[in-house]
Amino acid sequence: MMKKNLALSLQLKQVSYAYEGKPILHNIDWTLQGGEITVLLGPNGAGKTTLLHLLAGMKPAQQGSILLNQQVVHWQDQQYKKRIGYMMEFPFQYPFLTVIEIMRLIGQLRDVPTGQLEESIQYWLKHFLLESYSNYPIGALSQGTARRVALASQLLHEPDILLLDEPTNGLDPDQVIIVRDTLQQYCSRGALILLSTHIMGLAEKLSHQAAILRNGRIVYAGESDGDLESLYVASK
Ligand SMILES: Nc1ncnc2c1ncn2[C@@H]1O[C@H](COP(=O)(O)OP(=O)(O)OP(=O)(O)O)[C@@H](O)[C@H]1O
User: Fold this and answer.
1) By the 8 A CB rule, do 195 and 40 touch?
2) Ligand 1: distance of its center to the CA of 125 in Å?
């Protein structure tokens, strides 16, 4: 069993968010810890992606704040962003770039030194069985392959906070296992991992902590060693 990394925490304090006046997240109070995988569950439209956007610094919280190790972080803080890997639900907007091109681009944007970047790219390509696709355009890949590229791309700068929006969508069972094992290994180094998923089996196998978001409110947050599905149903 991995150890908690008490030196790393991410906290939402009274965070609210609305789209065009329509409230989506309501006064969220929630703390995530390094060395743990936390899973975020909730029905379609509950606000999971919006919450991940706020943690990734893609947009500012309209009320409340986000704290890294008890210090408030500004949503555009570049030092904060360098510590984050964010695998989005629909990750790639550049279908004509090849796998290696997109990985280089993302690594460069994250300031990974060139030599280290090439080494890291080769490591993760091999790890996710992607070597034979390195010169394929992203747009020519299956959904599952593209998602593995997306995850590999977010690990190049070795972030200690990893946010993942439905990371196993479109993956076959073998690939789900590779992703699961990768996240467990990565977490055991002390990283903080938060993923949203609709797949209860994955959530139960993978996570240490779980939260259930319904209508923009966290209705459960705690350890996920029990029967998450029953908890989920009971939280309606
Ligand atoms: N850019 C936007 N403008 C207006 N409304 C939005 C925008 N993005 C999301 N919403 C709305 O906010 C609500 C929450 O969306 P969000 O994507 O955060 O939910 P989710 O829990 O991730 O859903 P899913 O499980 O379907 O991915 C939804 O009602 C959605 O329609």
Assistant:
1) yes
2) 32
CA 140 to chain centre: 24
Of the candidates 224, 191, 155, 212, the one whose C-alpha atom is nearest the C-alpha of residue 40 is: 212
pTM score, two decimals? 0.94
Mind listing the pLDDT tens digit for each residue in 26-68?
999 999 999 999 999 999 999 999 999 999 999 999 999 999 9
pLDDT at 1 > cutoff 50: no
Strands (E), 35-188: 36-41, 63-68, 71-72, 84-87, 161-165
Q: Which of 19, 52, 195, 198 to mutate to test the pocket of ligand 1 (most atoms within 8 A of CB)?
A: 19
Q: How far is the CA of 48 from the centre of ligand 1 (A)?
A: 8
| 49, 87 contact by CB (below 8 A) | no
State ipTM: 0.96
From the options 3.10.450.60, 3.90.230.10, 3.30.2350.10, 3.40.50.300, give the CATH code of 9-93+162-235.
Answer: 3.40.50.300
